[in-house]
Write a structure and sequence with these properties.
The chain is mainly α.
C-alpha cells in the first residue's frame, strides 16, 4: 500500500490519509442530500437520484485515487445540477430529465476527447503564473464565503446585498464554535483539527436544534436512473441521446456545460494542488494529465448514471489541509459514499454550520498565496484581481477565470504586448466572451 500510493514518499501516513478522507467527505457530504432533492424537481425519482449521486461519486473518487493518486474527490457538481433541473427541464428547454442527462453525457465525451488530444493541459500551460495563483486565491475566498454564508454569519441584505447575520441565532452560534475550534486546533497544529471541528460543532448543534436528528432510515437502492441517455423517453420511441441531435439548439447547452466543467476543474485542481503540495513554484500541477482524464470521464459517467455531471470538488482542499496527500484518502471518501447510499440520514446531521470552521480555515490557508503575484505590473495584477474578486462575487469559479482571461488579453493588446500572449489564451478568452454573450 505504501509503495502503490507513495505515502512515505509524500511525507504522509495512513492515519493522515484516513483523517484527510474523512474531512473531505464530511465537507462535501451535503451533496448526498442536496443533489437528489435538486434532481427530483427535474423529474428523477428520489431513490434513483440518491443512488446515482452516491455511486457516481464513489466510482469516480476511487478512480481518481487509483489512477491519478491525488486527494481530489469528485461528486455531482452544484451549479450544473441546477442547470439540469431549472434550465433544461423546467426552463425554456423543457426537456425530459433523460435528455438533460444525455446533454451532460455528451459534454463529458467532448471534454474527454479534448483532454486526450492534450488541449486541456495546453490551456493550463498557457495561463500566466500570476493568474494561476489568482485562481487558487479566488477559490479560497469562495470557500470561506460558502462557509460563512451556510453558517448564517453572512446573509442577504436588500440594502447592501450582503450583511452580517444574527450572531445570537443558534445557526450562527454553532458556526462560531466551529470556527473557534478549527482556528485553535490549527494554531496548536493538532492533526485532524478540521475534522474535529466538524464533529464538535455537530454535537454542539444538537441541544441548539441546529443538528437535525435522523427521523427515518433508507436502506434501499434504485439503479433505474443508470444509462439515462440511452433510455427511451416515455410516450415516444426515441432514445434520449437522439433528442439532443434532433434539437440542435440543445448543443448550445453542451458548449455551456463544457466551459463550466473545463475551467471549474482547472481552478479546483490548482487549489487542491497548492494545499497538497503537488503544484510547483511556477504554478504547474504535477502529473496533471491523469487527473484531467479521470475528471473528464467523470462528467460522462455522471450523465450516464443520472447524477448530473460528476466533477472535482473544491472541498477536497479541506482534506488536503487536514493531511491528505495521496489517493488513499479517496478510497476512504469513496467507501463512505457507498455506505451512506444506504444511510443518508446520518450525513444529514452534519449541517452547513458544522463545516463552516473547516471551510473558513481552508480559505485562510489558500489566501496566503497572494504574495506570489507581482502587483507592480498591471498586465498581470489587474487580471489577477479580476479573477480573485470575480470568483466569490459571482459565485462561480468559471466566471472569475473568464474575467481574468479576458482582461489579461485586452490589457496585453492595448499595451502592444500581443506576442507575449499564447495563442490558446486568445482562444479561451474568445470562448469566455461567447459564453457570457450567449448566457
Amino acid at each position: 500500500m505504501d509503495s502503490f500510493f507513495k505515502i512515505s514518499e509524500r511525507k504522509s501516513t495512513i492515519g493522515n490519509e484516513i483523517i484527510g478522507g474523512l474531512t473531505t467527505f464530511l465537507a462535501m457530504a451535503y451533496i448526498i442530500a442536496v443533489n437528489p432533492n435538486m434532481l427530483v424537481v427535474a423529474g428523477v425519482p428520489f431513490d434513483a437520484a440518491l443512488t446515482a449521486t452516491c455511486f457516481g461519486a464513489a466510482i469516480m473518487t476511487i478512480a481518481m485515487g487509483l489512477i491519478a493518486n491525488r486527494p481530489i474527490a469528485l461528486a455531482s457538481g452544484m451549479g450544473i445540477n441546477a442547470i439540469v433541473a431549472y434550465t433544461l427541464c423546467l426552463g425554456g428547454a423543457a426537456v425530459d430529465w433523460r435528455v438533460a442527462m444525455a446533454i451532460v453525457f455528451l459534454e463529458g465525451i467532448v471534454i474527454l476527447i479534448l483532454v486526450a488530444c492534450g488541449l486541456r493541459k495546453a490551456v493550463m500551460d498557457a495561463i500566466p503564473v500570476s493568474l494561476r495563483h489568482a485562481i487558487g486565491i479566488g477559490i479560497g475566498l469562495f470557500i470561506a464565503f460558502i462557509g460563512l454564508k451556510g453558517g448564517g454569519i453572512i446573509v442577504a441584505n436588500e440594502s447592501t446585498i450582503l450583511g452580517l447575520g444574527d450572531l445570537s441565532a443558534p445557526v450562527a452560534i454553532v458556526s462560531l464554535i466551529a470556527i473557534a475550534v478549527a482556528v485553535v486546533l490549527q494554531v496548536l497544529n493538532v492533526k485532524g483539527g478540521l475534522l474535529i471541528s466538524i464533529i464538535v460543532a455537530t454535537i454542539a448543534g444538537i441541544p441548539l436544534g441546529v443538528t437535525p436528528l435522523p427521523s427515518s432510515w433508507s436502506f434501499g437502492l434504485d439503479f433505474s436512473a443508470f444509462a439515462a441517455p440511452f433510455q427511451t423517453i416515455p410516450g415516444t420511441d426515441t432514445m434520449a441521446i437522439a433528442q439532443v441531435f434532433l434539437q440542435p439548439a440543445l448543443l448550445l447547452f453542451v458548449f455551456s456545460l463544457l466551459m463550466s466543467d473545463f475551467f471549474d476543474t482547472m481552478g479546483t485542481v490548482v487549489a487542491v494542488g497548492e494545499q497538497a503540495d503537488f503544484v510547483d513554484e511556477n504554478g504547474d500541477v504535477k502529473d496533471i494529465q491523469p487527473i484531467l482524464m479521470v475528471d473528464s470521464a467523470a462528467a460522462a459517467v455522471g450523465g450516464f448514471v443520472g447524477a448530473s455531471s460528476v466533477t472535482s470538488f473544491v472541498e477536497s482542499t479541506s482534506g488536503a489541509a487536514a493531511g491528505a496527500r495521496t489517493g488513499l484518502s479517496n478510497l476512504v471518501v469513496g467507501i463512505l459514499f457507498v455506505i451512506f447510499a444506504f444511510a443518508s440520514p446520518i450525513i444529514g446531521m452534519v449541517s452547513s454550520s458544522a463545516t463552516c470552521g473547516a471551510l473558513v480555515v481552508v480559505g485562510y490557508l489558500m489566501l496566503s498565496d497572494v504574495i506570489n503575484i507581482d502587483w507592480t505590473r498591471i498586465e498581470f495584477a489587474f487580471p489577477a484581481f479580476a479573477t480573485i474578486m470575480g470568483i466569490p462575487m459571482t459565485y462561480s469559479i468559471t466566471n472569475g477565470i473568464g474575467f481574468g482571461f479576458i482582461s489579461y488579453c485586452v490589457i496585453m493588446l492595448v499595451t502592444g504586448k500581443v506576442r507575449e500572449v499564447k495563442p490558446l489564451m486568445w482562444v479561451a478568452a474568445i470562448a469566455f466572451l461567447a459564453m457570457f454573450i450567449l448566457s
